[in-house]
What does this fold into?
Amino acid sequence: MLSDFTITRVRKSRIGEVDFDNLPFGYVFSDHMFTMAFADGRWHSPEIVPYGPIQLEPGAAMLHYGQTAFDGLKAFRGPDGVARIFRPEMNARRLHDSCAALCMPTVDAEVFCQAIVALIELDHAWIPQKEGQSLYIRPLLIGTEVHLDVRPDRTFRFFIISAPVGAYFDQSAGGVSLKAEDRYTRAAAVGGLGFAKTSANYAASMLAAEEAREEGFDQVLWLDSNEHRYVEEVGAMNIFFKIGGTVITPPLGGSILPGVTRDSLMTLLRDRGVPVEERRIAIDEVMDALRSGAMEEIFGAGTGAVVSPVARLQYRGEALALENVPGPLTRDLYAELTGIQTGRLPDRHGWNLRVPLPQAEAVAAAAR
Ligand SMILES: *Cc1c(COP(=O)(O)O)cnc(C)c1O
It folds into this structure.
């Protein structure tokens, strides 16, 4: 269906205005966006247009009741000039699951990937190339019907926008500090929306995150909503603990976002022969391991955060710190993951969707 979508190019690119040496996360957007509309039970009018404002009436139910879902992935440009999109079919599947949970229509995985490839072909100059930089791709699906009835919309719009980004956390700061949250809840432990990338979960997280920030922490470590006892995840990343040689991460039980980075790191860990356990881990076990010195490393994993070392954790007023952050495994996993993503290391699991770019073809032709 995408073979006949229209492309309206910008008259003048904004790329000259961008300071690629200083890219805050998600404030600058590339020239173009993909969009298509849903009505009468089907998607129609796929097109690529200049990035810009959209029109919505204040009476649009989505603005009130939150029928939205999004996703997030990255494109990289390697030293070989090839653009690589990391595991987009995983994001397509997750967006599908998010939309299904919210009574929203889903986007076919093939259409999803084709649209991203088309956007990358057009905006490839926006993929930054310095260490730690990438083009962050943000698919977004929203209801667009104007009504105040509490029921699913009948019309929707799908967008894919992209943003050149640098590191999500300042890696030079020597690790992230977390506050384990024992009052507020991000998502219900049973029967909630925690597995979906939808606005409700992020709205629910703001107050706790602000309070943590005022107390000097970077992020909140969420605990389960029933007992505030078991570790779930961090605001935008999944969490891993290395205790006594074994890496432990909480299981996907419906309240945790099933991260693509989480899945990828578990594969890389198994490849290395490092024992990995997906199991419930109580905050008391984490604090005990920190106190006794059995805790070797803690790291977060997410598309934005990549592999982020955790340096400090506070729970109920007790702050404990790790030494030698980032630890060797955190550092190795970061290097291996980004090496695969940029094409500097072999892609042995076939994770990258490669998009040959005009210069890359020229380089390859010259080499022949
Ligand atoms: C996106 C996200 C993650 C990380 O998922 P990735 O697919 O690795 O980017 C983890 N937790 C939350 C709450 C998220 O929104």
